[in-house]
Amino acid sequence: MLTERQQLILGAIINDYIRSAEPVGSRSISKRGDVSFSPATIRNEMADLEELGFLEQPHTSAGRVPSTRGYRYFVDHLMKQEAATESELQAIRSFLSSQMMEAEQVIQHAAMIISNLTNYTSIVLGPDSVNQALKHFQLVPLGGDKAVAIVVTNTGHVENRTVTIPQDLDMSDIEQAVRFLNEKLSGVPLTRLKSRLFSEAGEEMGRYADQCEGLLRLIEQALTPESDSRLFMSGTTNILTQPEFKDVDKVKTIFSLLEETPAMLRLFSAMPSGLQVRIGTENDHEAIASCSLITASYTIDGQQLGTIGILGPTRMDYGRVISLLGVFGSNLKLLRPGH
Amino acid sequence: MLTERQQLILGAIINDYIRSAEPVGSRSISKRGDVSFSPATIRNEMADLEELGFLEQPHTSAGRVPSTRGYRYFVDHLMKQEAATESELQAIRSFLSSQMMEAEQVIQHAAMIISNLTNYTSIVLGPDSVNQALKHFQLVPLGGDKAVAIVVTNTGHVENRTVTIPQDLDMSDIEQAVRFLNEKLSGVPLTRLKSRLFSEAGEEMGRYADQCEGLLRLIEQALTPESDSRLFMSGTTNILTQPEFKDVDKVKTIFSLLEETPAMLRLFSAMPSGLQVRIGTENDHEAIASCSLITASYTIDGQQLGTIGILGPTRMDYGRVISLLGVFGSNLKLLRPGH
DNA sequence: TGTTAGCACTCGATACAGTGGAGTGCTAAT
DNA sequence: ATTAGCACTCCACTGTATCGAGTGCTAACA
């Protein structure tokens, strides 16, 4: 529906704006090598593009700025993806295949690298509990009536919490229960863990005594995952380097959103899997109405493990970020989770 | 060395400035109930106080602002500590004695509360490895040649890292080694762990085979603690609400310091134990030359476990923060670490 | 008919002078 | 020793003028 020339001009404007962060005028577009029309012609097209909703004018005598719709069109049709240099991509890829660490850590480090390369903020959402299975469970007594409960999942993720042991429980009973758990529940998805715990326990119940009550509650408590541990961010201060955020108040609203774990989880759960771009007001959250969020889900052996997201101003370098995130698109060959 | 009246006036000025964040003039001091002198008299005293280095003047016709030295005198001699309400203190105290969680978590939550109450940033430095002993060590195989190494200390702190198992190692050998470790090294301070590992292993060496080489290196790797895990912060964005930090560049330098773990560790290690106040340029780090850092070490059963710090502008409410941190001064009755 | 040169116009950014007021330092009176 | 009075300083604010980048429109042009 846009003419060739309109596309050319729209693309030129957005590319310029991404670089300069300042409204771009007809003159500067005309001086570019790739658009060989006079400023007047370009002005006409700009007026049309504005009428169509792709551009906006901060005030009458200023240049044009892309609108959310403009960016959207750009991302969908115009953008060149080869904006990331091959050496950058190689650096991340080699890092991902280095196999030095646990999957989650590798992803987090990779996100950190991207955040450094792009000067945007990166957010990693760890594996959903649906996609993790119990690998190992352990209770380490700490003296007194406290113990540390440790849950290791098949992705190598370790979660721990301190629990209080009811006084009427015997240590040997607990040890037996833990051994039983590891035997029977290893490999069970975290989400099903509790129901399986109760059903399995029910069968054995007859044999063991009735203090199982307290024991069960203890274990249930120990198995409840903390939701914040799924979120990992890096480069949050990069936001401060972006010229559009030199106003402290804007920064504050964004930061408070980032700090609010449940809101972030909601935000991410609204993103479908695969590579996804949410531009400005397309995000349901007002605090980031002037930001864009690009997410990519990463999978290992076909199993969707989590999501990595890049948050930056709407004027963000979409091509670059998308090609960088593309590294995660193909099935990663990281530490293979035990089946 | 300061006269009674000078102290009164200095105190009044600093208290006013802490509230208003704006240079305070002789008139406003004179109008306060507690200082019954005319503006002229106060002006004279102010000029003297400035000459002595306790006050500063942003420009000729402005009011006075406390200098680092002024704050120092205030903290050492003038400040009233009862600035925190008893109900606030009680809230924290009851929280600390709730015994619901592991010591470290309790401290972190308490720090969070203080940070919310004061609108400053709180930083918790976890137990030094000198003060932690091994409680339990475990290797959980993950499939492939990876395993998660888990170290539990007597403070209930859990640390984990993923390690690669050399192919030539037998699983049963590893299990035996882990059992051996838990028997022989439980209770050994983390700092001595490695040397003890080698000495103990040396004795047993004769009996076991010579693949100990790889095994030892594996365990050594697993026992090396991550230094970042000792730092915990909350309320970092509170900095943005302080009027002195409406300049983004200042905020940026502070944030980058906060993100730089080693620098933060250095900063904290420069603070002696007990309650400590570092005002403005007294901090060795330029980035926080306009900030004050108040730290308190917390001890449990006489054992120094870590440090809690509050970072705010030099114009911070010292009395309030110090009295809030005072809660940690007395020996805490938290989860008692196993002896 | 599509393109472009020309021109009047708009409007933010910048610079500058003027004003008001908060605050000071000094002096003289109490 | 204290304070009232006063001249002085200097920032913050306001209004005005200017500049220039950029626009929209019209008329000429290929």
Automatic annotation (TrEMBL), chains A, B:
<dbReference type="InterPro" id="IPR021153">
    <property type="entry name" value="HrcA_C"/>
</dbReference>
<feature type="domain" description="Winged helix-turn-helix transcription repressor HrcA DNA-binding">
    <location>
        <begin position="1"/>
        <end position="72"/>
    </location>
</feature>
<comment type="function">
    <text>Negative regulator of class I heat shock genes (grpE-dnaK-dnaJ and groELS operons). Prevents heat-shock induction of these operons.</text>
</comment>
<dbReference type="GO" id="GO:0003677">
    <property type="term" value="F:DNA binding"/>
</dbReference>
<keyword id="KW-0346">Stress response</keyword>
<keyword id="KW-0804">Transcription</keyword>
<dbReference type="InterPro" id="IPR002571">
    <property type="entry name" value="HrcA"/>
</dbReference>
<dbReference type="Pfam" id="PF03444">
    <property type="entry name" value="WHD_HrcA"/>
</dbReference>
<dbReference type="InterPro" id="IPR023120">
    <property type="entry name" value="WHTH_transcript_rep_HrcA_IDD"/>
</dbReference>
<protein>
    <recommendedName>
        <fullName>Heat-inducible transcription repressor HrcA</fullName>
    </recommendedName>
</protein>
<dbReference type="Pfam" id="PF01628">
    <property type="entry name" value="HrcA"/>
</dbReference>
<dbReference type="InterPro" id="IPR036388">
    <property type="entry name" value="WH-like_DNA-bd_sf"/>
</dbReference>
<keyword id="KW-0678">Repressor</keyword>
<feature type="domain" description="Heat-inducible transcription repressor HrcA C-terminal">
    <location>
        <begin position="104"/>
        <end position="322"/>
    </location>
</feature>
<keyword id="KW-0805">Transcription regulation</keyword>
<dbReference type="GO" id="GO:0045892">
    <property type="term" value="P:negative regulation of DNA-templated transcription"/>
</dbReference>
<dbReference type="InterPro" id="IPR036390">
    <property type="entry name" value="WH_DNA-bd_sf"/>
</dbReference>
<dbReference type="InterPro" id="IPR005104">
    <property type="entry name" value="WHTH_HrcA_DNA-bd"/>
</dbReference>
<dbReference type="InterPro" id="IPR029016">
    <property type="entry name" value="GAF-like_dom_sf"/>
</dbReference>
<comment type="similarity">
    <text>Belongs to the HrcA family.</text>
</comment>
